[in-house]
Write a structure and sequence with these properties.
- The chain is of the alpha/beta class.
- The chain has one domain: Rossmann fold (3-Layer(aba) Sandwich).
- The protein is built from 8 helices and 12 strands.
- The strands form 3 sheets. It has an 8-stranded mixed beta sheet with strand order 5-4-8-9-3-10-11-12, sandwiched between helices. Strands 1-2 form a two-stranded antiparallel ribbon.
- It is globular.
């Protein structure tokens, strides 16, 4: 008995003249994209991050994932679009963001950190104006980040939201239910928001339209002592609605460079 693949090929050959590729669905394409501000990455993604979808940027520390996200937000906020940064690890640096060109007046920073508590017997009170030296439990901060992202997506009005899970260990991020990512995907599509997820590995799986894998390349120095910038390698791990290139053994990749803030000031 012939296999399903053999039957499909036989039917397509019989209908080749009347109905070309009768059983082959036409690949969908996402026409609306938002530039990342990095020409090499835009070329890799056919224009930039897809609008109304989830884009994941994964990689280890110092791999360029945060710099790419800041470059993307710089393009959005300079066009007077409102954006948000959901900071699960409380590691966002506003000064670095401003140096990268982000308009902080157009950016909502959501810091996920627990309230400080002081216990006296059976009484627990919150101490105003005092910040605890220890951070909140990882699950508390992760839950806060997911809830905040959900609220922002459902509210609408944000052109881009960055969910920064870069400080989360992969074991915790991989426990996020797939239903959560599916809900984020539906909300982003409805509100036409670019949801960019940063992490050490990819978490959203099939709900992500684009997955970029970042890796550090080499530093740029002047005189062997002054750091002027970095080169990064970015590889397209997956991109939905795009035809795969036949015979390609490796996914498309490219390199891009980021300049230090003091180097940009010297050139200015």
């Amino acid at each position: 008995m012939p296999s399903a693949t053999a039957l499909r090929v036989e039917i397509e050959r019989a209908l080749d003249r009347r109905f070309p590729a009768a059983l082959t669905p036409v690949p969908r394409t996402i026409s609306e994209t938002a530039t990342t501000g990095v020409p090499e990455v835009d070329a890799l993604l056919d224009g930039g991050f897809p609008v109304g979808a989830i884009s994941e940027v994964s990689g280890p520390q110092s791999s360029g994932r945060t710099g790419l996200a800041l470059s993307f937000l710089a393009q959005q906020t300079q066009d007077e679009r409102v954006c948000a940064w959901v900071d699960a690890g409380d590691a966002f640096d506003p000064e670095s963001a401003a140096a990268s060109g982000v308009n902080l007046q157009q950016l909502l920073w959501v810091r996920c950190c627990g309230a400080s508590t002081v216990s006296a017997g059976n009484v627990s009170r919150i101490s105003p104006g005092w910040k605890a030296k220890t951070r909140a439990p990882v699950w508390t901060r992760l839950d806060q980040a997911l809830r905040a992202t959900d609220l922002l997506l459902q509210a609408g009005g944000f052109a881009a939201i960055v969910l920064d899970l870069g400080d989360m260990v992969p074991e915790h991020g991989c426990r996020i239910p797939l239903a959560t990512w599916f809900r984020f995907r539906q909300a982003a599509d409805r509100t036409r928001c670019c949801l960019v997820v940063l992490g050490q590995v990819a978490y959203a799986q099939s709900s992500a339209a684009v997955v970029l894998e970042c890796a550090p390349c080499k530093p740029h120095t002047a005189g062997g002592t002054v750091l002027n910038g970095f080169s990064f390698e970015v590889r397209r791990g997956r991109q939905r609605f795009t035809q795969s290139v036949q015979g390609a053994r490796k996914p498309p990749a490219s390199t891009w460079s980021a300049t230090s803030a003091w180097g940009a000031e010297e050139r200015a």
